[in-house]
Amino acid sequence: MSDTKHVVLIHGTWGSGDSWGPARAAFEERGYTVHTPTLRYHELPLHDGAMKVGPVSIRDYADDLVELVDSLDSPPLLVGLSLGGLLAQLAAARTRHAGVVAACPSPAAGIFAPTPATMRVFGSVFGRHFLQLRPWAKPLYPTTWQRFRRWIANVQTEELARELFADLVCESGRAYCEMVFPFLDRRKATTVNFAAVTTPVLAIRGEFDLVVPPRIAPMTAARYQQGGFVEIPRSDHLVFFGDALTLTMGHIDDWIARNRLLAA
């Protein structure tokens, strides 16, 4: 088996592999070979992607990630943010891997803990998409700058928030229908086989994350044999960006050392 320490960074909604920026550099500084896959059709400009991404399933995203992980010469650390946090878990249940970091994860089927505040935010950011006919077949366009700044990048600097917003692309409407209405999905795209993941799992939330309900990350950690949970103080949903990055990486460093992951 290779001594290469692989890490796969899985981006979230409206993002791409290029979104990782400083986080990728942080892992590389620690000696990792970093892979930042771009989810299907997210490499396309916004309007080009809108023509293709709408009906893509979460299962399609997971299949692509499993293929990548299986191609590596040693089991990687799987790290995902938001939607990527759910995808990291889905891929982990089907592949050899060293461990999983699910940061501000979208909820897997069966994990449901909304609050009135997060329901209002979700409705403001995503609600309009579900009011159109056949939302599962249509692209989910990025939210407005005002909503992105208020609800998602609420702790980031204005400069960084605008930089992140400028790179947003279309997301799959079907993927969001599979997450929001898992009880209607016969293919169970968001159902994670928790028992199949026997490696350490670290779930992370940001103290000021307004998008993901506060209990989702700890409830996710509790589903695993070796689940752990940490909160990043004074962070919004984007725990791998801005001032939060150093704190997040510190927790991941401690977790890796404690569990002796990827040791040569």
Task: Give a written overview of the molecule.
This protein is of the alpha/beta class and 264 residues long. Helices cover 38% and strands 13% of the residues. It contains ten helices and eight strands. The strands form two sheets. The chain has a six-stranded parallel β-sheet, sandwiched between helices. The protein has a two-stranded antiparallel sheet with strand order 5-6. Helix 1 links the parallel strand 1 and strand 2. Helix 3 (58-71) crosses helix 4. The longest helix has 16 residues, at 244-259. The mean pLDDT is 96. It holds the Pfam family Abhydrolase_6.
What is the domain tally?
Answer: 1
Name the helicity range. Answer: 25-40%
Percentage of residues in strands: 5-15%
Query: Order of strands side by side in the largest beta sheet?
Result: 2-1-3-4-7-8
Mean pLDDT: 96
Task: Give the N-to-C terminal Cα separation.
Answer: 11 Å
Largest sheet: 6 strands, parallel
Principal-axis shape: globular
GO molecular function: 2-succinyl-6-hydroxy-2,4-cyclohexadiene-1-carboxylate synthase activity
Enzyme class: lyase
EC number: 4.2.99.20
Organism: Mycobacterium attenuatum
